[in-house]
Design goal:
5-stranded parallel beta sheet; alpha/beta; Rossmann fold; single chain; binds cytidine-5'-monophosphate
């Protein structure tokens, strides 16, 4: 389970252009299982409307210290007590200065004084403002008081300059926030994951493939990364963006996928095979485009290696997790497949049911191991992935792998 599962994060948004990224940050924190409430400064509302944050957080946005209605719903002291952590992102130079000097002239700075929860800031500003001794002194003062400072990163800035002062990306912030809540589940482990389909060429223009968007595997890679693992994702042809901090190896055929996995399997502690690997490939691939001639045509196919079974058979190999797409008698078929392939765990899903499986954003899994099982979902693949990672970490520990 993600370190952020059930954590209450109070997000303070101050008036910088990076405030637009904070809307995505709310979404990402929620995907990681956190409850999020948002406090905006007046400056922040000049950049992004509170309604945006209300929509993504699903909660009323808090703006004013002296709004009797808002205070009645949840006052500044209640908000300060509610939070397990306070994250200020973006934190402008002005916000850092006011915090450093203990001002309490608006809702956010008042909460900073009133809360006993840990406080983190994600600074975002022009590189010269960031480097200014006033900003650096304020920051040093805050750090001495235990405020965590996440970032900033460097690169292109909204002001057209290049340098240090960019707010960390939302996913990076989710990761560092998770780190505030104890040791991540997969800290120090290497997780190898296959995802997406494979493509077996027939001739230069045609191929055999499987239906697979790669969404589940990519979500698992992201969840494993969030859980502190070093992640390598061996991906068949799919257009999904690579999750932050994940090493991606693009392959096309099952043969290439097998080679990429074989190279890395012995150095991995967990192997998760979510790819829809083509079971067969062409005996011989035509060098030029095959012409339409007769009414019928025959292609000779040969078996592809079973990547997962090969890894499971390794002496002292990683904890292996396979997937099974079933149309009937899911439990029995999946458990049988797990034993046949010698897997530690198998995650089975129904195929052909609306709202789960291929290409969908949601999924439901039945996860089986020797002597036990768990049902995950239905729910978003991102959440299912986090829950699966939680189960894997737990089972692996119990097996003493
Ligand atoms: O036997 P079946 O194809 O149903 O097994 C599915 C599981 O095996 C999935 O985890 C899939 O990624 C993996 N697999 C593999 N190599 C193959 C075929 C399947 O790794 N050639």
């Amino acid at each position: 389970m993600s370190q952020l599962q059930g954590r209450r994060i109070l997000l303070g948004v101050t008036g910088g252009i990076a405030a637009y990224k904070s809307a995505d940050l709310v979404r990402r924190l929620k995907e990681a299982g956190a409850e999020v409430r948002v406090v905006m400064t007046r400056g922040a509302t000049e950049f992004v409307r509170p309604l945006t944050f209300q929509a993504v957080s699903g909660e009323p946005v808090h703006e004013s210290l002296l709004d009797p209605q808002a205070e009645a719903a949840m006052g500044h002291i209640e908000l300060a007590r509610w939070a397990d952590a306070l994250l200020i992102a973006p934190a402008t130079a002005d916000a850092l200065a006011r915090m450093a000097h203990g001002l309490a002239d608006d809702l956010l700075t008042t909460i900073c004084l009133a809360t006993e929860a840990p406080i983190a800031v994600a600074p975002a500003m022009n590189r010269v403002m960031w480097a200014h001794p006033a900003t650096q002194d304020n920051l040093a003062l805050l750090q001495r008081r235990g405020v965590r400072v996440f970032g900033p990163g460097s690169g292109d800035q909204a002001c057209g300059e290049v340098g240090s002062g960019r707010m960390l990306e939302p996913l990076e912030l989710v990761q560092v926030m998770a780190g505030m809540f104890g040791q991540p589940l997969l800290q120090g482990l290497h997780v190898l994951i296959t995802a997406g389909p494979t493509r077996e060429p027939i001739d230069p223009v045609r191929y055999i493939t499987n239906r697979s968007s790669g969404k589940m595997g990519f979500a698992i890679a992201e969840a494993a990364r969030q859980a502190g693992a070093q992640v390598t994702l061996v991906a068949g042809p799919c257009t999904l963006p690579t999750p932050a901090g994940v090493e991606r190896v693009d392959v096309e055929t099952a043969g290439q996928m097998r080679d990429a996995v074989a190279e890395r399997a012995t150095d991995s502690q967990i192997f998760i095979a979510s790819a829809a690997v083509a079971d067969y490939r062409l005996d011989t691939v035509a060098e030029s485009k095959i012409k339409k001639t007769g009414e019928n045509m025959q292609l000779t196919l040969v078996r592809n290696p079973d990547i997962l079974a090969e890894v499971a058979a390794l002496d002292g190999g990683p904890f292996t997790v396979g997937f099974a797409a079933e149309t009937d008698d899911m439990h029995a078929h999946a458990q049988d497949k797990r034993r046949r392939k010698g897997l530690d765990m198998i995650a089975a899903n129904w195929v052909g049911r609306p709202g789960s499986g291929f290409d969908a954003d949601n999924n439901a899994l039945e996860v089986l191991w020797e002597g036990g099982s768990a049902s995950l979902g239905p729910g978003p693949k991102t959440r299912i992935a986090q829950e699966l990672i939680g189960l894997i970490a737990e089972r692996r520990q119990q097996q003493g792998n």
